[in-house]
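Appendix B: complex inputs.
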Amino acid sequence: MAATTAPVFEMRSTLASSRIAFGALLLRDLVVLRKRLREFIPRTLVQPFLLCFVFLYVFPTIGTGVGGARGPAGESAFATVLVAGVVGLSIMFQGIQAVALPLVQEFGFTREIEDRVLAPLPVEFVAIEKVVFGALQGLLAAALVFPIASVVHASYIHINLSVHWLTLLTLLPLASVTCSALGLTFGTIFDPRNVPLMFGIIILPLTFLGGTYYAWTALEPVKAAGFPWLQVVVLINPLVYINEGTRAALTSSSHMSLWAVYPALLGFSALFLVIGIRNFRRRVIS
Amino acid sequence: MPAAADAIVTTDLTKVYPGGITAVDGMSLTVPQGEVFGLLGPNGAGKTTTASMLTTRVIPTSGQALVGGVDVVRHPAVAKQLIGVVPQTNTLDRSLTVWENLYFHGRFFGMGARESRRAADDLLEQFRLSERATAPVMALSGGLAQRLMVARALLHRPAILFLDEPTAGLDPQSRIGLWEVIGGLRASGQTVVLTTHYMEEADQLCDRIGIMDHGRILALGTPDQLKRSVGADTIVTLTSDGDLQGLAEALRQRVEGVDSTTVMDGTVQVAVRGADRVLVRVIDAAEGAGYDLRDVGVAAPSLETVFINLTGKDLRD
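Resulting structure:
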């Protein structure tokens, strides 16, 4: 009866359809990011700027050196440690801001995610797309931080950067994926009411104990009964590996062995991806 | 896809949610292409769960569902290409403008940039939203947002359009506007599956209706077939302060041609065959049995009557 008026459609295989839809989702995110550059840039720059300003300019200027008050040399050594940490921390915050917070909102209030769940690709890929785009923003954030860190500091401080390109170009993408996947996991676990809890009991400890302000190798003196407990406890924190990695990539100061950094970050990435994608699927399909 | 494939075929489709709630219970249903099919039932009947299974968002516990000949569980990404969905809640992309919502939807479904741009322009025109093209979707009223969601669902020219309670929460004017849109789709041969708990909506828009309750389809047919199935020509509704069960019993005995009586919400509904002097006969019988009537109403059988006959309760329960 309606055979003549039935719509004409061409069906694509799952693979072809998924590839096209994945690309279109990235395109959509790119357009939204472009619209929001005026939010993205300040939100990305304020934290590194404040860190550099307070630790590398205000403290040294008022004579409250944080680097062990060992004069300009000590201050410079501290600045070198800090700059690498600021890069790691910025990547970490992109994971939260670009992936976790939007997801919490979409799952909690707006349900906009349901539209993208109906796009012709497996829902797991909708989650993976979030991670990929979050990771790209992480890289962008890392790139924005460098100029700040190298400019905002007291004039006598000298930041001894020595870039190890191979490490830098492999570590930054890996760190970005780890943080973005962490964002996916957080975004699918927390609901809007729990966001303050997420910041208070998870993100604050992650950042304060993530080796941003000190090198992990320097924690050895923190001992109880001869056991360097803090150095061991913080090993559960992915940010430690990221910051040790950026330190290895950007400076010649002492850092954790890269033989530990890479496997740990690969492991964290895999773990967060598996948990995040599984949770995501559970949230959108019953 | 086979040439004559039905738009939808389900076989013993069942969904049991964790906790043991059976939302859909062994549904077997066929919807041919070009039909506007309605699932009518009260809230909690299993309509939305059915629609969600057919649109890949709920995984069936058992049974099978084919959409355009494609198994929705085994090949969801292929099935999703064939369907357009208007869900109950506003799922418009709030980061995008009205026009961009349509454009990117087309891109998700593999339309090229130019094709998607043209389709977005055309649909905005068709749905009288062109003036709002650059507005953020947050600025749309409920009725306009709903219209945009329908336009979006149609943009990739789906074989089957799903509308889940499309007019719930809309103001009367927007509801009529949307009915016109659906009427137009019906005329163009678009296959539509809609769920609703408004009997007028099902009656007006649908070629065929499945009446649902407790996860099952209780009756299936065209609106006329369903209404005729009641067997009566006239429904008389009586309001009385007296013993309603007794009144119902008295009417069954005293009025000729009574098909059924239902006591509900402080009224007795009497389904009577033949329209001749029905009201007079019913009132005489009631007063003859010693009942004071406070109010009397008379109507032709509606889908509401069908539902009451099938379940003993009304759609609003």
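The radius of gyration of chain A is 22 Å.
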